[in-house]
Automatic annotation (TrEMBL):
Full-sequence range covered: 1 to 223 of 297
EC numbers for this chain: 2.4.2.17
GO molecular function: ATP binding; ATP phosphoribosyltransferase activity; magnesium ion binding
Protein's recorded name: ATP phosphoribosyltransferase
Claim: Transferase is one of the keywords in the record: yes
Phylogenetic lineage: Bacteria, Pseudomonadati, Pseudomonadota, Gammaproteobacteria, Lysobacterales
Subcellular location: Cytoplasm
Similarity annotation: Belongs to the ATP phosphoribosyltransferase family. Long subfamily.
Location (main, coarse): cytoplasm
Record gene name: hisG
One GO CC term on file: cytoplasm
Pathway stated in the Swiss-Prot or TrEMBL entry: Amino-acid biosynthesis; L-histidine biosynthesis; L-histidine from 5-phospho-alpha-D-ribose 1-diphosphate: step 1/9
GO BP: L-histidine biosynthetic process
């Protein structure tokens, strides 16, 4: 067995919509870093805290297996993975971060009449969030076919792959460009700070508490 780590690890998105703002928040929390040669890590200079730069989808798994103690990730990604693997203990949300806001929405072709979620009965719904969508359909008591796509969900109706979609929306420009209109919200999302469900050594637990407090301080403008 390898020696227990004596530096805390926090995972953030390497590149993408959350990447810059996540690092910015860590800087505002008082951390300074230098990059590793392979660009996988940023080593903390002033505290024993390192930043792991990864794809956002990998963050819940890294927290679950204890490869890092904290992570910044969209609630949509965290909840989708938790729902998709029932019975597994998942990371806990310790703070909401106020950026990366979006919502997972049902959108239908502009000309399709809409009254209520019951109108989805028997339709094919394209999404990259099959578990969140299935849970919402079950809550609404609607039987529909979930078509899982990894990208370009918004063009699925035009390609004949699905009748309607369930995708993330922020400004609504993508839906509009694809002649779709939003009719229901499945999940409101933003970036969150999540913590490993594993027990931490006293040293890492103390570092995690300190970093959480510094992040909360930066968010409330106290720093
Ligand atoms: O490479 P990696 O896997 O790390 O990144 P990624 O491509 O999976 O994710 P990325 O960077 O696109 O998004 C990261 C997180 O940002 C998401 O998981 C959400 O929590 C959050 N977020 C906020 C968004 C959006 N807003 C958003 N608008 N994620 C995606 N979108 C997409 C949406 O899927 C659609 O294609 O933007 C389009 C809609 O935007 P509007 O403005 O036209 O409505
Ligand atoms: Zn991703």
């Amino acid at each position: 067995m390898s020696a227990p780590r004596d530096r805390l690890r926090i995972a953030v998105q390497k590149s993408g919509r959350l990447a810059e703002t996540s690092l910015d928040l860590l800087r505002r929390a008082g951390l300074s870093f230098r990059a590793s040669r392979d660009r996988l890590f940023l080593f903390g200079d002033n505290l024993p805290i390192d930043v792991l730069l990864v794809r956002d989808d990998d963050i819940p798994g890294l927290l679950r297996e204890g490869s890092c103690e904290l992570g910044m990730v969209g609630r949509n990604v965290l909840d989708e993975q938790s729902l998709a693997t029932p019975g597994v203990v998942f990371p806990k949300v310790v703070s909401t971060l106020g950026f990366g806001r979006c919502h997972l929405a049902i959108a239908v072709p502009q000309e399709m009449p809409w009254g209520s979620p019951a109108d989805l009965e028997g339709l094919r719904i394209a999404t990259s969030y099959p578990a969140l969508l299935a849970a919402w359909l079950a809550r609404e008591g609607v039987a529909a076919e979930v078509v899982t796509l990894n990208g370009s969900v918004e063009i699925a109706p035009r390609l004949g792959k699905a009748d309607v979609i369930c995708d993330l929306v922020s400004t609504g420009a993508t839906l509009q460009a694809n002649q779709l209109r939003e009719v229901a919200t499945v999940l409101d999302s933003e970036a969150v700070l999540a913590r490993t469900p594993r027990a931490l050594s006293p040293l890492l637990a103390e570092l995690a508490e300190r970093l959480q407090a510094r992040i909360d301080g930066a968010l409330s403008g106290a720093q």
